[in-house]
Amino acid sequence: MWDFDVLVLGSGPGGQKAAIAAAKLERRVAVVERRNMMGGVCINTGTIPSKTLREAVIHLTGLNQRGMYGQGYRVKDEITAADLGVRTQHVIGREVDVIRSQSARNHVAILHGLGHIYAVGDVIGFPSLAESYKVAALDALNKLRRVARFEL
User: Fold this and answer.
1) Each residue of 92-115: b (16+ CB within 10 Å) or e?
2) At what angle do helices 13-24 and 140-148 cross, to 10 degrees?
3) Average pLDDT along the chain, 152 residues, taken 10 residues at a time
4) Contact by Cβ (8 Å): 123, 135
């Protein structure tokens, strides 16, 4: 059993900012996150991958450089799905590294698994079918109100 002042479910944009803000206010903070989803949907399947694909296509087709080099200019003659996938995975990896380093710098613990609100102040996570752990967020709702300074 671990004890934290603030427990955040998910490390998407909102969860990440909440965890860092609470940590900067000297609270003991942990984030419960699925092992392969650090950064949430935004980083892994939503905004970042779609914008990265778009920018990779623009770059590889030479669209931004055609004014300087002419309409026939291309960075690469044949663009494959693998080319786009490599670039997308590289960008996702860098974004996940940023989240991990921010968490480490601010002493935010990352707990891998699925978090569920179990009772007031308690969250239970299931990192695997064979193992479970219980995390107590000490009077989490009241502390969150004081930390974040807004009404829930």
Assistant:
1) beebbeebeebbeeeebbbbebeb
2) 80
3) 77 90 91 84 90 87 71 74 90 94 94 70 50 48 44 31
4) yes
Going from the C-alpha of 116 to that of each of 8, 62, 134, the distances in angstroms are: 11, 47, 10
29: exposed, middle or buried (C-beta count within 10 Å: 0-12, 13-18, 19+)? buried
pTM to 2 decimals? 0.70
CA pair distance 86, 81, nearest whole angstrom = 9
| Residue-level pLDDT at 150 | 34
* Residue 26 CB burial class (10 angstroms; 0-12, 13-18, ≥19): exposed
* β-strand partners of 9: 32
pLDDT on residue 49? 93
**Predicted pLDDT at 97:** 95
Residue in the block written with tokens 């968490």: 103
As a whole number of angstroms, the distance between CA 28 and CA 135 comes to 12
What are φ and ψ of residue 147, in 5° steps?
Answer: -65, -50
Distances (CA, A) of 142 to 10, 14, 87, 148: 20, 19, 44, 10
What pLDDT is attached to residue 144? Answer: 46
